[in-house]
Amino acid sequence: MPEETNSIDYIMEKASGPHFSGLRSPTSASSSSSFFADANAPRQPFVIGVSGGTASGKTTVCDMIIQQLHDHRVVLVNQDSFYRGLNTEELKRVHEYNFDHPDAFDTEQLLECVEKLKSGQSVQVPIYDFKQHRRSSDSFRQVNASDVIILEGILVFHDQRVRNLMNMKIFVDTDADVRLARRIRRDTVERGRDVNSVLEQYAKFVKPAFDDFVLPSKKYADVIIPRGGDNHVAIDLIVQHIRTKLGEHDLCKIYPNVYVIQSTFQIRGMHTLIRDRDISKHDFVFYSDRLIRLVVEHGLGHLPFTEKQVITPTASIYTGVDFCKKLCGVSIIRSGESMENALRACCKGIKIGKILIHRDGDDGKQLIYEKLPKDISERHVLLLDPVLGTGNSANQAIELLIQKGVPESHIIFLNLISAPEGIHCVCKRFPSLKIVTSEIDVALNEEFRVIPGMGEFGDRYFGTDD
Q: What pTM does this model have?
């Protein structure tokens, strides 16, 4: 475990956000060990690219994002830091040098820097002296791995390799006259240049480069912000999206059909109770039922709805939605039966089928029983199993449903905890199916048990673990 994970700040940071646990593929002990290494690796940071014309307000936008993400570790990497230092001949003709051309930047070093940060390593970013037009030879800026990396510069969208490292691309769009006025003020005050040289450089290099390189890269942006830092609404929406993405488990980014219900202290507390090996059976069942109800309600939210109008007791019209009528549940015996009461409590009179998978070794599962509604092919199916481990039993149950005519996209798999191996196993084979879970655990161990897990759920729930 990294040294930083021992700190109180790290523990509190992890506890305050959405909580996830892990997973592992049932191939061999060696592959299981390698997966443990992956599971404990640093989570991938969220990389944001911010581009736009010179003096468009890129830095202001970045500062506002950083301020609003104060509860996350955020680093800013400026493309300007990666200007190539001018040699003696270039310095003699500095007024003829185009600082707004892609060749003015050391893109290879920029790539290396961002790739290291994404992998969790610290880097030393060069410091560029805009008055001397050279890099400082004996000083660097130390940048540590963080939750969010903001890469800012006029040409950060120009190179496809750099764009591919970004999770979000923002283009700051500001009127040309405003940008020119800001450029004059900045270069005269901060960079020691006179007004005539700034205007000459703008006409000769800056504006042509904007038209040739910067403006065409606007098409790669996911979000365009008019008026830059003055557009508070756009920045608030961007920060909200970033917070959502930071709250997602890495597997939810890989598989958009995997949904983890939003974690709260109530949910964390209930997980703490049912995972405790010393909890009484009564409390285990009580808190498991509460969690299962939340998962079921969340799963129902993914069903199709139709608009419906009703007349209220005040003789007013209320426009709402009508529930999906063609629905059934299917429990994977025996643990899945523990989720049936919650489903019945949410869906009055719902039909529930059953599938029994015989466990004869981890890879030798064999279907020995199924009892399903005759019209199941016409229904949306909520598949019930509280623990998704290797995914082998789930895959066999899903395959049976598909053979019965249920479209893959009509299946929603509900469980309390999932192992990453199981998610990989199911989602790769059935990419259109949805998985709804309350937590993703760390991994499977060599015995294919979910870690940290909650033991044999069926035995604990039905009281047959003695």
A: 0.56
